[in-house]
């Protein structure tokens, strides 16, 4: 590193790391978040398009919103139960949705038309996630099942019944190679998406409701029924630690695009933002009147959308 005088200063890596963490923590503490929109009371799922221009929300029907104008682009009518999960493809041109049924729907986000429908192994799909290739997607259901799909094919390409209870949460690593599944059975399983094999099992010691990978692909975190957030380095298998601060079940976790901020939504009606490097609480966001069930950061990390159990959706902006 160069000083203004031109002299070279050599610092140990540990010292540099400490300084970076200190500066990051200070900046994060100084950052405020405020609710800028409170626009729905009938949504159970939310998703940002990868380019950050569209927001999908839904309960029975799905609405696609233009985030620049605040206008509804499409209202998509469904007939397969209350919505549980939404996920955009990496190019944003398609959207998958599922509810309390055995059906998954694939939609064209430009036309709003349905492309295809899939029938799953068991009733009650709890989680969906799109793969990095834009064709692969994964479902987790109440039949203890994880299924891998190709969007162009009618039937699943792989089906795993390895959990001992409902599969509640799914996440895919930033490099698109690793899938994590979390269950009421208190475990998280990691899967290699290329070989379609199980590679590791982690014991969360509490039912798992939500999972997120850090975009830098180093960590994954889970939100649990015991009110704790647990962190692992999935590459080494090392247990990194526990974040404690909520007083009830943690239903949702999300990590921003630069892997500095972790958001958690809880049955205690609060959202907490954490410094992912230190585990320090940055702030608590209040205003929901029911459990916070879903959280999603915008791709640039400047907005956070939350959905409550009563259908209320709030948009928070970083100040």
From TrEMBL:
State the WD repeat positions: 76-117, 118-159, 160-201, 201-242, 243-284, 285-319
Q: Which residues form the TEP-1 C-terminal beta-propeller domain?
A: 163-234
Please name the InterPro entries in this protein's record. Answer: Beta-prop_TEP1_C, WD40/YVTN_repeat-like_dom_sf, WD40_PAC1, WD40_repeat_CS, WD40_repeat_dom_sf, WD40_rpt
Indicate whether Metal-binding appears among the record's keywords: no
Keyword field: Repeat, WD repeat
Q: What is the protein name for this chain?
A: TEP-1 C-terminal beta-propeller domain-containing protein
